[in-house]
Amino acid sequence: MNRCLVIDDAPVVRKVASRILSSEGMEVEVADSGSAALSIFSDMRPDIILLDDWLPDMRSVDFLQSLQSMTAGAMPMVFLMVVEVDPVPIMRAKRAGAEGWILKPFDRPLLMSAIEKNVEKAMRRRRRNAEKEEAAA
């Protein structure tokens, strides 16, 4: 996985995340709104999306629903970025297609650890779902 889209209206979050991910060898694009991110997504097709819960033009759930329709369900791994561990928005985002969450503010070790942990969990979940679908077929 080497393409990441960071969506946050805070310039410092976009800048810090972009620097960290770029230094880890990822191709990174940033967006400051949901509509800008959807436009970038069409061209970039990222493997991972880091998504702020509150964007100026839409909530994370609205973005995820738009993404679901654009990808016909074959979504990239999306991780919600939150400033507090509030289970309500996290669960809403997970029901809409997010794989997990990352707490802000973060530094390199925290961000990379959270991404690695969440990607591993998401990959296991996707394998289990694929196995269930094969067994049902």
Low-pLDDT residue intervals, each spanning 5 or more residues: none
CATH secondary-structure class: Alpha Beta
CATH superfamily: Response regulator
Any idea of the CATH topology? Rossmann fold
Give me the Rg, rounded.
14 Å
Instruction: Count up the helices.
Output: 5
* Strand numbers in spatial order across the main sheet: 2-1-3-4-5
Word description of this protein:
54% of the residues lie in helices and 18% in strands. The protein has a single domain, classed as Response regulator (Rossmann fold). It is α/β, with parallel strands linked by helices. The chain is globular, with a radius of gyration of 14 Å. 31% of the residues are buried. The protein has a five-stranded parallel beta sheet, with helices on both faces. The longest helix is centred in the last third of the chain and has 29 residues, at 108-136. The chain starts with a strand and ends with a helix.
